[in-house]
Amino acid sequence: MSLRRTLTYGTTSALLVVVLAAILVFANLLSVRHYRRFDTTANQRFTLSPQTRNVLTGLSAPVEALCFFEPDGKERQEATQLFEQAQAASRNFTYRFVDPDKHPREAQAHAITQYGTTVLRQGERTITITGHAEGDLTSGLIRVTRAQRRQIRFTTGHGERPLHGTDRDGLDVAARALEQQGFEVSELLLLQTGAVAEESDVVVIAGPKKPFLPAEVAAIHRYLDGGGNVILLADPDGDADLAPLVAGWGVGLPKELILDPSSRMFGGDYTVPLVAQYPPHAITQGFSLACFFPVARPVVKEEAAGVTHAVIAQTGPQAWGETEVAREPLQLDDGDRPGPVDVILLAEHAAAEAGEGAVTQAVGAPAAAPVDAPVDAPAAAPAGAGEGATPKGGDNEAPAAAPAKAAPAHGGRLLVAGDADFPTNQWYPFSGNGDLFLNCVSFLGKEEGLVAIRPKEHQPQTLALTPRQGEFLLFGFVVFLPLATFATAFGVWRWRRSL
């Protein structure tokens, strides 16, 4: 009887071991085929950003990463985690580690001179990156998969924010971010060129303080009529008259200042409105980060023939457009613009409208020509070009003699923001400011796959304490807690002695 019981128990135990082993094997197979990670960090440090996932899932051809790392180095461990996540996100991404010391010929073939270098290869195109952060990988994938780089031109000569300025009002941080996204950025001086080059994908007018000359306005409108894309960052201060630039596009720029009491909750001023409402649009799809627009003006929709509008971003209902800033107290009065206030507006011409005619000369503006670029007689005005539009200049040839051009495949697009500070070096890192600016450029530059929240640089987490909080921690955990523990132990010892 005991032998039978032993055999029964032994057989049952063996079956349980086999079943458990089968479950483990099956679970392992599932984990290999269906890769899942759980990131419990506060800032999702070990999770790919939405933009990186978009780039990976959008790979139409295989990309191989050759990773030249030191075998036992810490950098290789960190890179392995990143490349594993990337490979799990796309079947078209593979990676392979190469020890440059054991395989010197392969390292020489790719001109590898230091550890931590990765070569991304798609077909005949190769890109070399020296970092192993997520942003480095994303930038490399964008560059290796693009046959040509989109051209982003920033106007200059009117007091705009300097493209490569490194001070608080410069755009150097934004320019470097655009280059990491695969764009090519450069300055545009219309007084010299006389026109916007056709290969320009987006023209950015970043906070001009002086007005554009009529011939420059005409060049901008010709570019828009040809299906171009313009971003106008319109500050409320300065002497620039921006009405000619937006003439015929149904965009109003009233002389108002947006005030927002909710900014005081974040330690800001009334003049730094919080922008966190984004009506449905491709630019802000999946975008939920708050943005700050210091010293901003409203952007108002107006009627214009052949133009459609889309609000991209607006303030909360507690903000308003103040018409008399010097008046005290600052509050919403009759005549002010109640919230929510639109701060970014996208206007788009229909293709048929954008391809016809020219814009008329601004009322009261003399016809002036750019340097070495004579201006021809104005042509007929297009549908929707109202009062205040500017002339279309020619290139040493009368409009009547110019050959007829086919209508562009799509209409021009004009995106107007009521603030030029939010993408500057000072404000770019704040919350979603940088992502929102890059999303606008990516959308107008026809790189919709890049419209997403980008990888963030991981900063060390620090805990800032007030003097009162520091004293509480000192006396509470360094003094009181040990004394309480000692007193409890002493009391238990006395109690046991008395038994």
Short précis:
The chain is built from twelve helices and 18 strands.
Walk me through the structure.
The protein is an alpha/beta fold. It has helices spanning 2-33, 50-57, 74-89, 104-109, 134-145, 172-180, 190-193, 214-225, 243-246, 351-354, 433-444, 467-498; strands spanning 63-68, 93-98, 117-122, 125-129, 151-155, 184-188, 202-206, 229-233, 251-252, 257-259, 274-277, 291-292, 300-301, 307-315, 320-322, 337-338, 342-349, 413-417. The chain folds into two domains: 50-145, Glutaredoxin (3-Layer(aba) Sandwich); 151-399 and 406-450, Rossmann fold, CATH 3.40.50. It has a nine-stranded mixed beta sheet with strand order 6-5-7-8-18-17-14-11-12, with helices on both faces. The chain has a four-stranded mixed beta sheet with strand order 2-1-3-4, with helices on one face. Residues 352-408 have low confidence and may be disordered.
